[in-house]
Input
Amino acid sequence: MPKSSSRALESPPPSKVWTFLDERLGLSEILEIARHKRVPQHTQSFWYYWGGISLFFFLIQAISGVLLLVYYRPGVDAFDSVRRITYDIDFGWLIRSAHSWSANLMIVAVFVHMFSVFFMKAYRAPREFGWWSGLVLLGLAMTFGFSGYLLPMDELAYFATKVGLDIPTSIPVIGPIMGDLIRGGPDVNENTIQRFFALHVVILPALFVPVLMFHLFLVQKHGNAVPPSEEAKPESERSSIPFFPNFFAKDLAMWLIALNVLALLASLYPWDLGPQADPLAPAPQGIHPEWYFMVPFQVLKVFGNWFPGLTGEIMGMALFTLGGLIWAVIPLYDMNNKNAARARTATWIGFVVLATVIVFTIWGYSAL
Amino acid sequence: MNYPAWDVPHIGSGWVIGSIAIFHVMISHFAVGGGLYLPMAESRALKKGRKDWLEFLPNHAKFFLILTGVYGAVSGVGIWFAIGLASPEGTSTLIHNFVFGWAIEWVFFIIELSTAAVYYYTWNRIPERLHLKVGWLYAGASFFTLFIINGILTFMLTPGAAWLEVAGSGQEASRFFQAFFNPTYWPSLFLRTLVCVSLAGLWALVTASRLDGNKQGALKTEVIRWSFGWLLPAFFLMPICFLWYLYQVPESQSQLLGLGISTIGSGTFTQVTRTALITVMTSATILCIAYFVAYRNPREFGFGYAVCLLVLGLAATGSTEKAREMLRKPYVVGEHMYSNGIRKTPVGEPHISEVEKFNSEGYLTQSLWATEEERVAWAEFDHAWNGGVQLASETLGPQVAPETLRRGELMFQGQCLACHTRDAYRSMKNFLRDRDLTSIRNMLGMLHDYKEDSPYRAFMPPLVGTETEREALALYLNEMAHGGEQAQPAEPVHQVARTNN
Output
């Protein structure tokens, strides 16, 4: 048995309200289940919080997104409505800033979570579906970001989306059809906003929430994975704490810290609104996608320079797709702790991917 | 311009001071608060005969000695270097007024550093009672360093009417005590003492977090809960002290905060309010985390959380210090010297302020940083200026003369650089991005006229200098923001350019 290094927090005597609710809803039983669930305690425990932090930022986005919906008008009025939210509506600037900042912070948290899961080998059996559902959530989160980016319809949003959509459009045969379908025509215009709006507030949440529930269910089912160094220890030397209330209190503390970071960024650096998009104007200098798309953007740019024309783009996209596939099938390669050579190779793949993300992002920004 | 300008690209000189000062404040306040914590904890341990506490405390004392005695002392000197470079006129004023105060401060520093070393190195080597006395001696000396520096810091915000009466007369030191015990002295001392006490608790949580919850569970629980108690006075009493402090701040300054609070909804609220809100938010978070994670669950309280609390403490300290600095705007010494070192109160003979003097004689007239050739070019420029509506454009080239730009640059360095950078922090390029030359001139005109209803008046000093100096600044700013592309407005011809020689 792993040792229980810590005891649960002492509970105060139950109040009348608690008793009332408990008798009707069976809260004690739920708490009992939560108390039985244990979270490993070791030197790498810090990384366990990042999934929760990602969830927290998602909740912030959901709440602030609903509030933005009250005044946002998709279509030709998009820019005006965002201008009104930012400058005329009381606290509109704060809600919009919180929404935009939390979107970026969520992607940061998801990336940290993904790499920590990878390096702790938490994708190994029986947690493969946790890894895959996590990747789906990452893809959906990035699509949230891409679709939300256009909605203010300011200059930067317009041209960045235009450039972004030119990439899939360049694929032979199906590209133009796909491009027209996404844009709602040959150009980015109010039809595109309507489509992106529907994607952003209806389709993506409808996909994201069930996948998220599935992901959380798997975490609950399999519990937290421990890193190989911890796994090598005998059971008696491992320690753990109850999920509730001990880990839960710590998790909430991390959420509070995350809220501080968000509030600090939103109040000191309110999200900017650029000039209204003018499709007839030339694209401003240095148009680029959001930072989390900088890697594919830069990869395509580099391949475009090496192999001018369609060849470069196709090669870049093929390489990127292949990289994504390898990343996804890692659990099928490094399946358990029996094969040390495969474990080492997987770790090296992780380092290469991490280095690629960092290098290409910095390279992308410095090449603007 | 008696001193060279310290041109720190991108971050500006203010952030050099800030980045040293925020850490220094956090550690120097710990030096004072920790000075109380250690002898109190030791005294408690001796009374209760707790050997485990007496084994833990030397570790905390070692951490305390290294942090405060090395980093605290070095960063303190670093602040001196930085403020001397960033605001030489302001620093000069402080030295001229408080040289005696600083002499006393240094005496206490020496006692403080000596006793801190003696306190640590004599654990278990001298009698317990004597060791405790060394601790109390340290506590007294470190508190007096705060007692003195507080007078000098608060003087900068509220020098007081008595000192302002003699400001610029050469007799300022005669009002030493009035300036020292200025209107915000006592509320600030209480505020800072509370901060010191809470930081003592916060830093103690860091050391306590290193205790093994499994092997030293009882000790860890006790130390953490006792240290948590040190956070409480600040959280309950600081709002009261802050209101007292605010009551003593001149209305012109405190209204910046009031204005900020009333405009939060529209998002146009002042920076001082934004930073003050961060103080409130981070402080509340510290209390929540310290209670729910440390106090309620001490055995599991790990180093990571302690570091998180420290970072939050750093954010709280940094934002408070920044808010305090911003509350002082547009002055570096309240009602006496503007943030760019120009004196508002009359200095010497004739009995006029530097603002009037520079407006009539020129800001760069006495500048040591211009060459003779540049002065000749400026004189030609002034001669050709003819009231501003000139010039025979056919005799002028399309480019602004480098000497004129140099003149504008010197104006910029002398009057703007204290708070602005060219391209990053409070970037002039950003501010002027949507302004053409005419608009820049109008803005500079408003800053120069400095009318009662000017929106800039609350936080910016007046722009001083002759008409041609201001024109040179406008052309320089235009060049900086737009590369001089819009330097030639159509009507009226208001252009100053290189003569075809």
Residues 390-397, 487-501 of chain B have pLDDT under 50 and may be disordered. The domain at 361-482 of chain B is CATH 1.10.760 (Cytochrome Bc1 Complex; Chain D, domain 2).
